[in-house]
């Protein structure tokens, strides 16, 4: 029987659309096992059920909780380093010896005192809490000591006054610590029990409100009795630790003891032996060691002596009487240290890092061979092709005559023939004519006359009148820069073509091209550059997390033998200053590429290398004095401290960044200096040394990048006024001063000028920082804010 077949006139109905969005099941049925291109090219993501998602989230929470607990248990335990606590009294009425007396409770644990110079410290061992603390102290007026010890402290204990909380010096110390980065901290109030009982509750309420501005949602603890001290110790032991990024990826050490062995050739230089606990990461003997405030050094050997402060002291049983036993105290451990001394590692000369900080430039490295005849002919033909212009000319016109015929939209200069514009043409071509000038350009500065200072009978005799005049002049220059940014006067004694020969014009500051390798200074032959700084930094940090480093592990008590150290380091340590050492990261010691002139080549030199560091900073609100660019400042960048004269520029996303003459308070700026390579993140603090020796906090920020190709472009604006105005042309005067034409210049505009308009000409040049890096920073005078006058003199701009 034949099957029925529908004819051509059969009605074809549209298939039913099951909604706009298909379900997962229908999509899989239609796909029939086929996968999309993106799914094939990427790792297939497993779709977990709701139960599996909850189970996975629970496992992640459990892992994070166990990691936090493991870190908390390791810090201060028998296998980890002691819990280092920095005690900072924030008011002059705080009694630091009384606080130490309460914390040194013999019933709580064993106390080992350690004093050198003016810095007091002690070790507290608590076997029943399974914790050991190392307490140190620093006064807020001693700025370098506070900042350096806060870099390595696990917890900072701030002592507050019950009535005022902190004084002006303590407030300044808090500003610096917040800018540098605070580790875990605790607030304790001393002296509440000394108040009348009726005023104690009110004092605590007022203090809590005052503290909320600096420390929101933080609990205040008391420190007046032994019971309160015991509660404070439990709080310190159970706190969650906050991490500082610049120290977690580096090995660092706080020196408990230091010995100096002078060399045979020179008594001023020798081997420094420092002992302490390894923190952060494992310490390798072949790495370079940076001692804060003293520079970079090499290590010869790492010893592993007996821990002088064990949480559970060793027990030795007598051979004659097995029932008798005695504990080895810390002094006995130190006495037996030489017998149990183990040499952990010795430096390998083939793998040890060098102390060379700069590239030795070769003046012939940037030279090129003379081009051949073929290359010259090719360049000549290319120049001819690029210079050909199509013009409509009458028949019979020669090529020479065609060069003088203007385009259809061109205008002839028939008007104003009495004004010679030769000087103007020379000025526009001055950059190409005087490119080879070797004379160093002097600094541009606006000169202005100031009146004599008026001194009344009540004027303080200690005030330096010359310094006051200079400060007043800086205030005037800052106000002028705010009202007339980048405007300069054309000099009368020097021709403009010479004064501005290194400048150029740009059609658009944002889009016009500028080669970053063009006309580099000689100092760029001494620095290093990464091919890709971000990728290198990411790779180094990944290796630190995954790769195991051979050396002293975290928590070990070790002795480092540091070679070629000046004797001043030990003298500084014996006077009471802390001795802190940081290990440098691999690529903070070596890179594979550098620049010499305009040429690039590869080198394989080692050492803490120098490069161009860019830092984003903001003006500190407590400082109102004007700060000019290229003025010497003191830098605290991560674990380094140095002096330099930086450039200031705008913080933008473009490839060119405008140079700023003053550190403004309304926006963040980028500071550019020559300094050793440091991987971000790292905090940045800028200080200025006053005439009285104190350091004032100028700005705070963070390290942005290590990039010599970041272009800082300086702009100067020349102003003139229209003298004669035509349709689209005007004669401008007072912009230049030339004999013959009196500086009058013909200019063509795209519109008509008005008589009250001002004509401006923008000129640009790239500027580079000066090589003013100095690792030596003098010790500041103890900071007292009341001694610094915060008054701003009135400036009469008329």
From TrEMBL:
<dbReference type="InterPro" id="IPR030387">
    <property type="entry name" value="G_Bms1/Tsr1_dom"/>
</dbReference>
<feature type="region of interest" description="Disordered">
    <location>
        <begin position="1"/>
        <end position="84"/>
    </location>
</feature>
<keyword id="KW-0539">Nucleus</keyword>
<feature type="compositionally biased region" description="Acidic residues">
    <location>
        <begin position="426"/>
        <end position="446"/>
    </location>
</feature>
<dbReference type="Pfam" id="PF04950">
    <property type="entry name" value="RIBIOP_C"/>
</dbReference>
<protein>
    <recommendedName>
        <fullName>Pre-rRNA-processing protein TSR1 homolog</fullName>
    </recommendedName>
</protein>
<feature type="compositionally biased region" description="Basic and acidic residues">
    <location>
        <begin position="65"/>
        <end position="76"/>
    </location>
</feature>
<comment type="function">
    <text>Required during maturation of the 40S ribosomal subunit in the nucleolus.</text>
</comment>
<dbReference type="Pfam" id="PF22298">
    <property type="entry name" value="Tsr1_G-like"/>
</dbReference>
<dbReference type="GO" id="GO:0000479">
    <property type="term" value="P:endonucleolytic cleavage of tricistronic rRNA transcript (SSU-rRNA, 5.8S rRNA, LSU-rRNA)"/>
</dbReference>
<feature type="region of interest" description="Disordered">
    <location>
        <begin position="426"/>
        <end position="450"/>
    </location>
</feature>
<dbReference type="GO" id="GO:0034511">
    <property type="term" value="F:U3 snoRNA binding"/>
</dbReference>
<dbReference type="Pfam" id="PF08142">
    <property type="entry name" value="AARP2CN"/>
</dbReference>
<dbReference type="GO" id="GO:0005730">
    <property type="term" value="C:nucleolus"/>
</dbReference>
<dbReference type="GO" id="GO:0000462">
    <property type="term" value="P:maturation of SSU-rRNA from tricistronic rRNA transcript (SSU-rRNA, 5.8S rRNA, LSU-rRNA)"/>
</dbReference>
<comment type="similarity">
    <text>Belongs to the TRAFAC class translation factor GTPase superfamily. Bms1-like GTPase family. TSR1 subfamily.</text>
</comment>
<dbReference type="GO" id="GO:0003924">
    <property type="term" value="F:GTPase activity"/>
</dbReference>
<dbReference type="InterPro" id="IPR039761">
    <property type="entry name" value="Bms1/Tsr1"/>
</dbReference>
<dbReference type="GO" id="GO:0005525">
    <property type="term" value="F:GTP binding"/>
</dbReference>
<feature type="compositionally biased region" description="Basic and acidic residues">
    <location>
        <begin position="46"/>
        <end position="55"/>
    </location>
</feature>
<dbReference type="InterPro" id="IPR007034">
    <property type="entry name" value="BMS1_TSR1_C"/>
</dbReference>
<dbReference type="InterPro" id="IPR012948">
    <property type="entry name" value="AARP2CN"/>
</dbReference>
<dbReference type="GO" id="GO:0030688">
    <property type="term" value="C:preribosome, small subunit precursor"/>
</dbReference>
<feature type="compositionally biased region" description="Basic residues">
    <location>
        <begin position="13"/>
        <end position="24"/>
    </location>
</feature>
<feature type="domain" description="Bms1-type G">
    <location>
        <begin position="81"/>
        <end position="242"/>
    </location>
</feature>
<keyword id="KW-0690">Ribosome biogenesis</keyword>
């Amino acid at each position: 029987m034949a099957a029925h077949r529908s004819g051509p006139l059969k009605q074809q109905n549209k298939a039913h659309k099951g909604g706009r969005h298909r379900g997962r099941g229908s999509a899989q049925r239609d796909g029939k096992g086929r996968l999309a291109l993106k799914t094939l090219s990427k790792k297939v993501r497993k779709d977990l059920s709701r139960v599996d998602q909850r189970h996975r989230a629970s496992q992640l929470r459990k892992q994070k909780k166990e990691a936090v607990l493991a870190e908390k248990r390791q810090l201060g335990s028998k296998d980890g380093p002691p819990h280092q606590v920095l005690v900072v009294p924030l008011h002059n009425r705080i009694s630091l010896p009384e606080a130490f007396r309460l914390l040194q409770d013999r019933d709580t644990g064993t106390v080992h005192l350690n004093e050198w110079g003016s810095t007091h410290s002690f070790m507290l061992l608590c076997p029943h809490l399974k914790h050991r603390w190392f307490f140190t102290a620093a006064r807020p007026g001693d700025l370098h000591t506070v900042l350096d010890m806060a870099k390595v402290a696990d917890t900072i204990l701030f002592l507050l006054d019950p009535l005022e909380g902190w004084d002006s010096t303590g407030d300044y110390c808090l500003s610096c610590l917040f800018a540098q980065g605070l580790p875990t901290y605790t607030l304790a109030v001393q002296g509440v029990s000394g108040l009348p009982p009726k005023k104690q509750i009110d004092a605590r309420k007022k203090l809590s409100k005052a503290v909320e501005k600096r420390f929101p949602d933080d609990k205040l603890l008391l420190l007046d009795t032994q019971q309160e001290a015991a509660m404070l110790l439990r709080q310190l032991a159970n706190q969650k630790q906050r991490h500082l990024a610049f120290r977690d990826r580096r090995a660092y050490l706080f020196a408990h003891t230091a010995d100096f062995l002078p060399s045979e050739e020179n008594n001023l230089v020798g081997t420094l032996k420092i002992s302490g606990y390894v923190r952060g990461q494992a310490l390798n003997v072949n790495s370079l060691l940076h001692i804060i405030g003293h520079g970079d050094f090499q290590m010869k050997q790492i010893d592993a002596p007996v821990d002088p402060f064990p949480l559970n002291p060793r027990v030795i049983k007598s051979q004659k009487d097995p029932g008798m036993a005695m504990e080895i105290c810390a002094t006995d451990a130190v006495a037996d240290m030489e017998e149990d001394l183990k040499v952990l590692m010795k430096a390998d000369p083939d793998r040890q890092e060098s102390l060379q900080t700069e590239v030795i430039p070769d003046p012939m490295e940037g030279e090129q061979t003379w081009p051949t005849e073929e290359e010259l002919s090719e360049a000549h033909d290319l120049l001819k092709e690029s210079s050909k212009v199509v013009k409509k000319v009458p028949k019979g016109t020669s090529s020479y005559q065609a060069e003088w015929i203007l385009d259809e939209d061109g205008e002839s200069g028939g008007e104003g023939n009495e004004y010679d514009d030769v000087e103007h043409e020379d000025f526009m071509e001055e950059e190409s004519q005087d490119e080879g000038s070797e004379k160093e350009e002097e600094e541009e500065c606006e000169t202005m006359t100031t009146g004599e200072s008026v001194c009344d009978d009540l004027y303080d005799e200690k005030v330096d009148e010359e310094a006051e005049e200079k400060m007043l002049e800086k205030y005037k220059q800052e106000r002028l820069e705010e009202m007339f940014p980048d405007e300069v006067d054309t000099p009368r004694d020097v021709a403009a073509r010479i004064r501005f020969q290194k400048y150029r014009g740009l059609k658009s500051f944002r889009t016009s091209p500028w080669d970053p390798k063009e006309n580099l200074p000689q100092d760029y032959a001494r620095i290093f550059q990464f091919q890709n700084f971000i990728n290198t930094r990411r790779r180094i940090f990944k290796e630190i997390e995954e790769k195991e480093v051979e050396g002293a592990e975290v928590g070990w008590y070790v002795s480092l033998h540091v070679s070629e150290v000046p004797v001043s380091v030990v003298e500084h340590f014996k006077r009471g200053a802390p001795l802190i050492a940081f290990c440098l990261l691999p690529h903070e010691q070596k890179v594979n590429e550098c620049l010499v002139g305009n040429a690039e080549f590869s080198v394989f030199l080692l050492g803490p290398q120098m490069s161009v560091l860019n830092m984003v900073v903001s003006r500190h609100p407590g400082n109102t004095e004007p700060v000019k660019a290229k003025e010497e400042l003191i830098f605290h960048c991560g674990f380094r401290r140095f002096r330099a004269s930086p450039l200031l520029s705008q913080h933008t996303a473009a490839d060119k960044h405008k140079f700023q003459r003053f550190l403004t308070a309304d926006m963040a700026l980028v500071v550019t200096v020559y300094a050793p390579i440091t991987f971000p993140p790292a905090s940045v603090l800028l200080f200025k040394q006053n005439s009285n020796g104190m350091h004032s906090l100028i700005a705070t920020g963070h390290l942005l990048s290590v990039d010599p190709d970041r272009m800082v472009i300086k702009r100067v604006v020349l102003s003139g006024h229209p003298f004669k105005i035509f349709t689209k042309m005007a004669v401008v005067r007072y912009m230049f001063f030339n004999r013959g034409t009196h500086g009058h210049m013909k200019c063509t505009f795209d519109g008509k000028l008005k008589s009250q308009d001002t004509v401006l000409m923008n000129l640009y040049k790239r500027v580079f920082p000066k090589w003013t890096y100095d690792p030596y920073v003098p010790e500041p005078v103890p900071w007292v804010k009341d001694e610094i006058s915060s008054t701003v003199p009135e400036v009469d701009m008329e």
